[in-house]
């Protein structure tokens, strides 16, 4: 959590200092709610340290977190809002709830902030390596979709899969283009963790970034996190038609759940992906299940 400490205020670092080092390193999310004590999530469970229970958080505390993550300005980070979350330096995702300021049906900012969820990034070099023997064919990984519920490590697995392909670890080395719309895959220093043959296009709409990378950087592999819009699917269809391998993630708790959603059903029917990885939690541990062909 060393890099994470740089984007949180001192009062939060003081509270987290009550935890032993091993517990701190295992934190996956930090939850802050106005009027309630700090809570953390590990292995799918949310809990509060005994020393935190008599210290309910104020709205000012939540604003201090946003101010620190925004480099000194709450408005800097709130103005990024489009989907109920923002991305702070180092790929830290901050989910926000409260009273929204809406114009013509679009969320512009927040009048009041009552809850924050900080996703703690955990680079895990090597997490994708055990899967390569199941994914790779002839030294290359076919187009692969990573599927799991939120907070299960889709982005972490995708990041390490990109690193493996870029470095040639367990597969033939390949050029990888990364469409990093929200700065969670390769923003800042994270880019160096993606390998020497990786090119990252940050803070650009995913669909446009995929096509810009395709036309300008001659990638052998294109990667994007969280396919959520029809235009993302259209860009992937165009890239697949050019012979480029695709790596992507999607929210879903099962194969059947994926097929029930119109966007992903269309994606499956197009046959764009040859491999699927489902991440689930069993006994507090992540399990990676690989399927070939249609999900």
Could you explain how this protein is built, in words?
This protein is α/β, with parallel strands linked by helices. Helices cover 29% and strands 28% of the residues. It has helices spanning 10-16, 21-25, 59-69, 74-78, 129-135, 154-167, 206-216, 230-240, 255-260, 262-269, and strands at residues 29-33, 39-42, 45-47, 85-88, 92-103, 106-119, 144-148, 176-180, 198-202, 221-224, 245-251, 275-282, 285-292. The chain has a seven-stranded mixed beta sheet, sandwiched between helices. A six-stranded antiparallel beta sheet has the order 3-2-1-6-5-4.
Descriptive keywords:
alpha/beta, seven-stranded mixed sheet, 295 residues, six-stranded antiparallel sheet, globular
Which strands sit side by side, in order, in the main sheet? 9-8-10-11-7-12-13
Low-confidence stretches: none
- SSE order: HHEEEHHEEEHEHEEHEHEHHEE
Strand content: 25-35%
The residue-averaged pLDDT reads 86
Shape: globular
- Helical region count? 10
How many β-strand stretches? Answer: 13
Tell me the span between the first and last alpha carbons. Answer: 36 Å
Major sheet attributes: 7 strands, mixed
Class derived from helix and strand content? alpha/beta
Q: What level of helicity do the residues show? A: 25-40%
Question: Secondary-structure blueprint of this entry?
Answer:
Elements: H1 10-16, H2 21-25, E1 29-33, E2 39-42, E3 45-47, H3 59-69, H4 74-78, E4 85-88, E5 92-103, E6 106-119, H5 129-135, E7 144-148, H6 154-167, E8 176-180, E9 198-202, H7 206-216, E10 221-224, H8 230-240, E11 245-251, H9 255-260, H10 262-269, E12 275-282, E13 285-292
Parallel strand pairs: 7-11, 7-12, 8-9, 8-10, 10-11
Antiparallel strand pairs: 1-2, 1-6, 2-3, 4-5, 5-6, 12-13
């Amino acid at each position: 959590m060393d890099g994470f400490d740089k984007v949180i205020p001192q009062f939060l670092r003081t509270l987290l200092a009550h935890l032993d080092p091993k517990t701190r390193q295992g934190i996956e999310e930090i939850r802050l709610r106005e009027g309630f004590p700090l809570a953390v999530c590990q292995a799918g469970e949310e809990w509060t340290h005994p020393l935190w229970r008599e210290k309910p958080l104020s709205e000012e505390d939540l604003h201090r977190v946003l101010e620190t993550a925004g480099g000194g300005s709450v408005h800097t980070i709130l103005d990024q809002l489009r989907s109920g979350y923002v991305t702070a330096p180092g790929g830290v995702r901050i989910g926000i709830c409260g009273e929204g300021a809406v114009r013509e049906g679009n969320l512009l900012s927040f009048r009041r902030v009552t809850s924050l969820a900080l996703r703690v990034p955990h680079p895990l070099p090597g997490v994708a390596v055990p899967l390569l023997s199941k994914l790779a064919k002839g030294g290359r990984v076919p187009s692969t979709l990573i599927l799991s519920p939120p907070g299960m490590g889709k982005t972490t697995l995708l990041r390490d899969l990109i690193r493996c392909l870029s470095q040639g670890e367990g597969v033939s080395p390949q050029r990888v283009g990364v469409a990093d719309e929200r700065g969670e895959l390769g923003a800042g220093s994270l880019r160096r963790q993606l390998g020497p043959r990786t090119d990252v296009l940050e803070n650009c709409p995913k669909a446009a970034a995929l096509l810009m990378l395709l036309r300008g950087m001659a990638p052998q592999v294109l990667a994007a996190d969280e396919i959520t819009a029809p235009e993302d699917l259209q860009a992937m269809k165009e890239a697949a038609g050019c012979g480029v391998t695709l790596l992507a993630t999607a929210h879903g708790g099962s194969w059947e759940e994926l097929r029930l959603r119109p966007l992903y059903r269309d994606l499956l029917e197009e046959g764009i992906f040859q491999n699927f990885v489902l991440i689930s939690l069993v006994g507090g541990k992540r399990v990676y299940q690989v399927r070939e062909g249609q999900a």
